[in-house]
């Protein structure tokens, strides 16, 4: 299990995370939600070791090195210029000292033009390529930053199915998303980050409360304010 205890991270004077506790269990899908700027990506970067200047403790409870056993899907995957999709996949495997594999079976699902330059892919295709690089490797944990974002509807459904099957195989998956329905359909538990800390952990039976908690009083105040800015009987309203 990946265990996060008392995690704190600041950028200069800006304390983004404080006293965050969270677990990622093998064989489970854990969603991380929170408003823009709540610190979700920062938490994922601490977990994977892309950021190291944090306080608190992040460890794999059986002592496995986290990086070696964890695959990460960044929010905006980066691709080197002049590298085809296939070369990118080969690069990912070689960088981890893994044997090259045949990508065709997986790619028959994602249907990418692997011999074209990756930097020329559309945003959704880039996300699929970065996903493909994870799927052809055998990770115990997957950390996915907005994996559904940018994918077409078919790919979204397929990704949901892939995640459920990876979970059934015992993988632990941590993902962020702003699409509540997708999260509640796939996750076993969801953590809500607010004000830099965990506002609440929800188990599946409690997901109903999540919508209410997200659309809190603050949101109701904004809707009331919007009604003043855009009154229903505006200048263009026919009478
Ligand atoms: N490299 C950085 N330097 C300074 N501040 C940063 C840096 N990266 C993020 N931040 C700040 O940290 C806070 C949390 O950012 P983060 O990207 O973790 O949020 P998030 O929850 O992933 O947001 P979103 O839902 O918009 O993706 C924000 O206030 C952001 O401005």
UniProtKB/TrEMBL annotation:
Keyword set includes NAD: no
Key word Thylakoid present: no
InterPro entries in the record: AAA+_ATPase (IPR003593), ABC_transporter-like_ATP-bd (IPR003439), ABC_transporter-like_CS (IPR017871), ABC_Transporter_VariousFunc (IPR051782), P-loop_NTPase (IPR027417)
Pfam hit, one: ABC_tran
Protein name: ABC transporter ATP-binding protein
Molecular function GO labels: ATP binding
Record organism: Hymenobacter nitidus
Domain of life the protein comes from: Bacteria
ABC transporter domain segment(s): 2-220
């Amino acid at each position: 299990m990946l265990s996060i205890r008392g995690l704190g991270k600041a950028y200069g004077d800006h304390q983004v995370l404080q006293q965050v506790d969270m677990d990622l269990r093998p064989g489970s899908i854990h969603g991380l939600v929170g408003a823009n700027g709540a610190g979700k990506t920062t938490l994922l970067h601490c977990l994977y070791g892309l950021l190291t200047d944090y306080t608190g403790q992040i460890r794999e409870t059986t002592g496995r090195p986290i990086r070696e056993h964890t695959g990460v899907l960044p929010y905006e995957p980066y691709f080197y210029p002049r590298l085809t999709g296939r070369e990118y996949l080969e690069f990912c495997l070689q960088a981890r000292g893994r044997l090259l594999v045949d990508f065709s079976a997986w790619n028959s699902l994602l249907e990418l033009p692997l011999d074209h330059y990756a930097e020329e892919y559309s945003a959704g295709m880039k996300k699929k390529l970065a996903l493909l690089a994870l799927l052809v490797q055998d990770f115990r944990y997957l950390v996915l930053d907005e994996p559904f974002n940018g994918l077409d509807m078919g790919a979204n459904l397929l990704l949901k199915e892939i995640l459920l099957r990876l979970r059934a195989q015992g993988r632990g998956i941590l993902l962020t998303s702003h699409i509540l329905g997708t999260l509640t359909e796939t996750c076993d538990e969801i953590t809500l980050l607010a004000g830099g800390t965990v506002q609440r952990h929800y188990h599946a039976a409690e997901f109903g409360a999540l919508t209410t908690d997200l659309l809190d009083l603050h949101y109701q105040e904004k809707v009331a304010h919007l009604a003043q800015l855009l009154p229903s009987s505006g200048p263009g309203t026919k009478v």
